[in-house]
């Protein structure tokens, strides 16, 4: 179990570090510039030092620390960790997160609602999905895991699509932790949801930061390939929001 938990966190960080090289490029541009990215080489629009990670891993670690500090009700502890990270002036804060963190005045859910309004209702980003994995790793009780997963998404993303994607992802992770195969876990959790078509078809959406697009591509790579390596390399070389898609799939 400890191996699986560590594997999830390292897998996420590796996907993030590799995907940062190709973030915001398209598949054609990646092919011209790199051929195929198959290793952690740094660079990208952040000019990332070799082996460094981005906001996806930083915020995942923040969630993990918050959960460790207060397992019963971790929302304010998670929020404190977000603020600590933000105070260090990271170069790559997502739009929704930046808006929420700058509006926060003691109530996360109010800040999230206001941010969504300020952004014209466009707050279904993948910024809560990219950091939710530690919750599935921390709570063996499914109901508690789902409650914390949901609240942790709503504290920055006042959006049901974002919360639903976190719930589906963490339910899949919990099944895998409990020994189910990844394919069966995905099939069980996406049947009857808006993601069901991915079992049969390749996504017809861009690999964007919109959480539904991101989730479709994450599921696509996980269903298509058996090895961790192939999943992450697939996501990295598709471009778009590649660090986040590779991080989520890698986790
Ligand atoms: Mg990132």
Describe this structure in words.
The protein has 251 residues and is mainly alpha-helical. The protein has one domain (2-35, 48-250): ADP-ribosylation/Crystallin J1 (ADP-ribosylglycohydrolase fold). The chain contains 13 helices and no strands. The chain has helices spanning 2-19, 27-34, 55-69, 75-87, 95-103, 108-118, 133-138, 142-154, 160-177, 182-190, 211-224, 228-236, 242-250. The model has no long low-confidence stretch (mean pLDDT 97). Magnesium ion is lined by residues 54-56, 92, 243-244.
Brief synopsis:
The chain is mainly alpha-helical and 251 residues long. The protein has helices at 2-19, 27-34, 55-69, 75-87, 95-103, 108-118, 133-138, 142-154, 160-177, 182-190, 211-224, 228-236, 242-250.
């Amino acid at each position: 179990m400890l191996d699986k938990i560590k594997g999830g966190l390292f897998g996420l960080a590796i996907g993030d570090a590799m995907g940062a090289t190709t973030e915001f490029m398209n598949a054609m541009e990646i092919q011209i510039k790199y051929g195929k990215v198959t290793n952690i080489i740094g660079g990208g629009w952040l000019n990332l030092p070799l082996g460094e990670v981005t906001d996806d891993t930083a915020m995942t670690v923040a969630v993990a620390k918050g959960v460790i500090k207060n397992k019963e009700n971790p929302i304010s502890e998670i929020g404190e960790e977000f603020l600590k990270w933000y105070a260090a002036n990271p170069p790559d804060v997502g739009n929704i997160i930046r808006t929420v963190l700058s509006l926060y005045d003691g109530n996360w859910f109010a800040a999230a609602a206001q941010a969504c309004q300020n952004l014209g209702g466009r707050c279904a980003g993948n910024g809560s999905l990219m950091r939710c994995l530690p919750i599935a790793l921390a709570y063996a009780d499914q109901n508690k895991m789902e409650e914390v997963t949901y609240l942790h998404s709503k504290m920055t993303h006042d959006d049901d699509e974002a919360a639903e994607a976190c719930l589906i992802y963490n339910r899949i992770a919990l099944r895998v932790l409990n020994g189910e195969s990844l394919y069966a876990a995905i099939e069980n959790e996406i049947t009857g949801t808006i993601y069901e078509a991915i079992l049969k078809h390749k996504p017809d959406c861009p690999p964007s930061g919109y959480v539904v697009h991101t989730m479709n591509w994450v599921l696509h790579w996980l269903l298509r390939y058996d090895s961790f390596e192939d999943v992450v390399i697939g996501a990295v070389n598709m471009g778009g929001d590649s660090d986040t898609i590779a991080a989520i799939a890698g986790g």
